[in-house]
Design goal:
It is a single chain. The protein is mainly alpha-helical. 84% of the residues lie in helices and 0% in strands. The protein has 4 helices and no strands. It is elongated. The relative contact order is 0.15.
């Protein structure tokens, strides 16, 4: 799994971000099951990417709310 940077997230449309978020959550669950074998570095990276997507989505919502006012 490659790291997903903020630039990449910004270039995605809303549907792609939601799809990627679902994929990452599923991958996180699978990684937690196999964590005893592989270690937790993969889990940390997945959590960081999920947090980036959530952060971007929230900032996008706030910007849209400010534009409406």
């Amino acid at each position: 799994m490659a790291s997903l940077k903020m630039k990449d997230i910004q270039n995605m449309n809303k549907e792609d971000r939601e799809k990627k978020l679902k994929e990452l959550k599923l991958e996180l669950i699978k990684s937690k099951v196999g964590a005893s074998k592989t270690g937790s570095s993969k889990i940390k990276e997945i959590k960081k990417i999920i947090a980036r997507i959530h952060t971007f989505n929230k900032s996008k919502v706030k910007k849209e709310a400010l534009k409406k006012k």
